[in-house]
Each structure stands twice: as C-alpha cells, then as structure tokens.
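Repro case for the chain-ordering regression, as requested:
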Amino acid sequence: MTEIRPEAAAAEAAGLDEMRRAALTSRSFVAGALLTAVFIAMAAVSFVWTPYDVTVLTIPDKFLPPSPAHLFGTDQFGRDIFSMIMVGARTSILVAVVAVGIGVVLGVPLGLAAAASRRSLFDELIMRTNDVVFAFPALLMAILITAVFGPGIVNAIIAIGIYNTPVFARLARGAALTLWSRDFLLAARVAGKGPLLISVEHILPNIANLLIVQGTILFSLGILSEAAFSYVGLGAQPPLPSWGRMLADSQTLISLAPHTAIFPGLAIVLAVLGLNLMGDGMRDVLDPRLRRSRG
Amino acid sequence: MLTVAGLNLSIAGAPILKQVGFSVAEGEIFGLVGESGSGKSMTAYTIMGLMPRGSEVQGQVRLDDANLLQMSESEMCGVRGSQVGMVFQEPMTALNPLATIGDQVAETAMIHGEMGRREARTLARQTLDRVGLPPDRFHLDRYPHELSGGQRQRVVIAMAIALRPRLLIADEPTTALDVTTQAQIIRLLRRLVEEDGMALMLITHDLGVVAGLVDHMAIMRHGEVVEAGAAEAVFRSVRHPYTRALVEASNHAPDRSLRRRVEPEPLLEVRDVVRDYPVARRTLFGRREFFRAVDQVSFTIRRGESLGLVGESGCGKSTLTRAILGLDPVQGGEIRIDGEPVDADVPHSIRRKIQVVFQDPYGSFNPRHRVARLVAEPFHLMSEPPTGAERRERVDKALADVGLPGESAGRYIHEFSGGQRQRIAIARALVIEPELIVLDEAVSALDVSIRAQILDLLADLTVRHRVSYLFIAHDLSVVRAITDRVLVMRAGRIVEEGETEAIFIGARHPYTQDLIAATPSIARGLASRTGRAKGEEAPT
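-- result from build under test --
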C-alpha cells in the first residue's frame, strides 16, 4: 500500500525483534515449535533418506521388537516402523496443511463478507449454506466423495477441507461482527474506507489470533481425521504409509506386537500436542498488548 | 464510627495505598474524592475486605471497636450487607440479570437476618418503596433489564440498605447516569441518610457532587490522602496545591479570546433530518414498526463556529452524529456540508471535510497498528495521498499540533494513557485539515485535570487552524467552556437553541432549566450549603 520508509522499516524491525524475544520467552511456543520442527524435519529427510525402504517387504524380519537396527521395531511384513513413521509424517502434514488451507481460503472471506453485509440476505445465504455443510460429519463427507471419485489421499484432503470451511466462516463472522461495532471501524469508515479495505486492514489483523488458534486445532484435527480415514480405508492407499493405517493394521496384533501400535499412536499424539502448543503460544506472540505484559 | 488509620496496601509488591487515614462519624456524609488511579475505590474494597488476590495490608480499619482487617472471611460476611452496605458504579452489571429485583433485595435479608422468604419479600417490598420504586410500577417480580439505569441504581441501593446498615459505601454511584438522574439519586441518598441515621461514604471524582452534599471529605492522589477536613473548610481555604488544581480544573474554561472570527456563510446545514430505526416485530406477520430516533432536526454551523449539542442518553444525539458523518442513511430531510449533500455514498472529496473524535479513548484505535498508521488513516480520502517524507512530515505535524512528541509515531496505542489517546484521536482528525470536527463526548471519559488540558488544546487549535467544532455532550458545563452556541436535544427533537451564555443565564425551555439545575457545580453546591445553614431547604 505504501512504500517502506526507513523509519517505518526500523519500527518494523524493532517489532520483529520484540516478536522474536516474545516468542523465545513463551514456553509453550518454544516447546510446540520444537515438536513441530522435529516432525517437519522427519518428513523432509524422508524424501532423500530413510533407514530402510518402506516398500520392500522382508517377511523373515516381521514383528522384531525395538533394537539398535530397527529403532521402533518392524511390522507384520518386516518393514521398519521408524522409516514408515518418517514417510507417514509427509502424508499427515500434507493433509493437515492443505485441508486447513482450503478451510481458510474459502471460509475466512465468506465469513468476512457475511459480517460486512450483516443482517442482509447475502449474510443469511452464506451462513445457512454453512449450516447445511456443517451438518454433515467429515467422515460422511469423505464417504460421499469416495463413493463418487474413489478412495485416495486427495479426496480425503478435499473432504476435510470442505468440513473446515464453515468452521472458519463462522469464526470469522462472529469475531468480525463484534469488531464492526467498535469505534475504530467507525473511524475507518469516516476515513472513507469501504468494507473490503476495512475487512483486510482492520478486521483481519484483529481476528488473526483467533484464526491461528483455530487453525492449529484444525491442523491437529486434520491429522486425526486423516488417521481416521486411513483407518477405515478411505484415506492413503497402500503402499503410501500413513499413521492412521499403521494403527488400523496393528489393531489385531496389539497383544502380539504392541510396538506396532504404540509408535504410530505416539507420533499422532506428539504431532497434535506440538501444533496445539505452538498455536497457543503464537496467539500471545502476535498480540502487541500481550507481548508487553510479558515484560 | 469508622476509623481508617495508617492503611497501607500493596498488590504484588507495588504500593497502592500509603498511610491512608480518615474517620467517618455516625450519621454523617463523608466524601472520598480523587481522580482515576488515586486509590479511592481500593480503599473502599479494603474496608469491605474485598482486596484482590496477592495484596498485603497493614494498618487499621475500625468499625466501632472491631478491627475489620483482623476478621476472618466468615466474620466479614456477617459485617458486609448487615452493618456496611455497598453501592457500585455500574448499575448495568451490579445486578444479576436472571434474578427478579425482589429476590435480589430479599437475598441480603435472608442471608443475614435469618428471615424466612415471606418476611424477606415483605422487607424487600418496603425497601423498594423507600428508594422510590412504588409497587404499582415496580413489582417484585420484574427483571433488571426492564428498568432504566437510574431505576437499577435504586434497586442496588435498596439491596445495600435493606437491613439498615450503619454505614453505606457508595463507589461512584452516579457516574454512569445522566445528570438529571444523578440529581435524583443524590437526593435519594441524602434522604436515606436522614431517615436511618446511617453514615454514607461517597466515593467520587466529581467535586461538584460533593460540594453541596458532604460534611467531611478527603482528597486522594497516588494512594495518599493529600487533604482532609470539613468540606466547607476544604473548599474555602484550598490549601494543598493538588486540591487547588482539581478545583480549577473542574471550573476550567479555556481562553478562547484569540479564536478566529465566525464567518457568516454556513458550513454544515442540517434540514428537517429524520432517522428511523426498525423495531422488532411484535407478531410473526405483524407490520414492521419504526422508532423515530431523530425527528425533524434542523440547525446550521457557520464557518469557524463551535456548536454544542447537549442531551441525555437516548435522546438521539449519537444517531444524528452518525447521519452527519455519512455513516447511516437518513429517512427524511438533508444534510449539506459546504453546500454539497452528505449521505452514505458521499464522494471522498466532500467527506474529507468532516472528521470525528469518539468518546472512548480505548476503543477508537486499531490495537494492531502503530500510531503513524493510525493517524495517517484519513489520507485515504485524498485523491493523491502524500507519500514518503511528506507523509511522515504531516503525521509528525499533526502529532506536534496536539502536543505529542514525534517518536510517538512508532509506538502502539496501548502504550498511551487515556488523555494521550484522545490527543492522538484529535491528531487523526486534524491530519487532513478538515473544515469540521465532530467531537462525540470526546472529553466525557477523562479525569477533570486531563479534560481541562484537552479543552485547552481544542481551543488552541481553533486559533491555529480554520476549523469548526460540533461538540456533542451530556455535560452542560463542558459545553459552556468551549462553544459559541448550543442546542438542547430531547427525545429526538431540538427543544432549545441559542448563544451559549444566553442559554445558561436564561433558559426558556423547562427541560433545559432542569438540565442546568441538575449539573453538579462547586459554586452552586457551596451556595446551597449556606442556604441550608440559614435553615432553608436546599434547592435541588
């Protein structure tokens, strides 16, 4: 909108500095970010290297308990569970990021538009459509899409993304509505700004913390949904490993080889925990008022 | 009866009260006066044993011979409500919205008086009668949302006095109310004190309220009592410099002798403006009904003129403001600035002639933006907004105009006090050099000393800039200091209009006369005191 002036750039840099300091003093943010970074690193490394090839079956090595050779042991086909979790992180992160992305990109503008035209026919139309979509559980949506397009990771992503959309739309509308009655939005209207500009410039930054927290919750829900879809066979198809399918495969073997269930389960728990902690910390870091009160 | 001595309070290590001491005698009205942050409310909470977590208290709070500070929580529960009653500032939040007014008043009696429900309800009925809520209109089974602010405050008072406590602590009981309602509540409190022989400790920031009312008073600042004594002596001698500053700030009228001449041509013309609101339908297919918030209002502001618009809450002045700012459409009449019509889609070149300053210094800025960006917001109205160094220069100039250093530009709004925020709001209004600034209760939320500074600033700006003001307020004394002409609005209509001084000296409309009479003033308060001393009834 405006070109960067040296003073503004300096102020901006000071702001980033403050933000960095706040981020580093927020325990939950640091812990969450570290956990998340570990999973992202695992996923990234899996593209170039994994301890074992996850598509090769070595039946004689089946059900090996954790050992230096196989850190997390092996499954019923003799595949290395650690390698599978590394590759499975790829699937989980992909599904979660893209599904939340779909939800944000579709839901937030809809919610902001509904709030900007509050109590109009347009508002009603958007929100009632949302209600209808909201009424379908994600799993039902996935079954519907699978019935039409067949099972697969892309269809799982679309199903979760559609499910996420009304969540973001409602959240954005509700938060924006309370802001629309505030004096600073009146001031912006007196400054001649239209609903679009006000929504982008004033409302979005003020509801960003809510959206980020909701986003991280839905990230973790996305990972869980992907696991659930894969568990019932609607998500990632073999040979692509997925944490959910690893759990599904191990359920009949749990008394025989508990490690086949424990490690994918732990991966899901820790990834979800990391994202939630990070989201919680990020809300504090992004708010200039909370930043100061941390001293 | 109540003695506070050497009271120290610190919260999380930060000292809040320092050696506070005063005493309240049986049946007297005691005033505790101070600006926000002076510790006056915290003193009241300490007396009631309602300190926040993590606070450390030293000193004595004696009610007769008992030291309240040494009492256990359960002993304090026996004191609160039965021996000491309390009334809070905000009548909207002091009542439980889901309980009937009768039950809420009866509750105190049932807890302390060991009364049955029936007796307690009878007592509640009597008490509500005493506070001026008669049974035919205010049945025990009514809910708080059905009452006005003043009526709710009467319910809160009824809760506090139901068991005839010996001491009533009222924390800013009238600050949230209109002036005429305020006068009624003050009259009620005075009557209850006389009837019950109860002592009243009135906590307020308004010297005008205490001037005619209290017997003894203490003035607090930064957690310390700076001056105390018989009210009349304090007002007559005004020994402490802070007391003098407070009294001066309360009566402050900025020097307007240097302001520019009012030019004859009209700047803003409002002609027969009507503003209707749809009301919720009574039945599903009922006809949509409308509430007329602004009814055929007409007035003119000339260039360089400063016009006051006065009215109590709900009179339609804010609705009218929004119409003038072109935020809401009007249902009749027209608004013109410089001869050009103003409506919801007025072009930017016209809209830039009007800017606004809102009441709430906390809500009128985006907390996520720095001051430079906040102040620069109206540049959006210019066809070629200044950029780079010029933009920076104009923001700095606007900040300098309102007396803020240039380095403020890089800070966030939460780093500023209420008075500083109001300066920033004025800078934002000034930055595109508008013809008219609408000040919507712009000084109502400020302490008297800060208010005096902002009024000076506004007066000074009319010397340096060619700007007119539309000054909207519920407080007549503020309007008197800063405006040339004044309009009095009631129930959507202008009931009186004229030169400011002429209105104050000889208002013709009875409503205006009521408003003027109800406005607290130190001089009038003191005059009523001497009147009472001569044995006459105080004029109220």
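Ordering looks correct now. Confidence is low (pLDDT under 50) at residues 1-9 of chain A.
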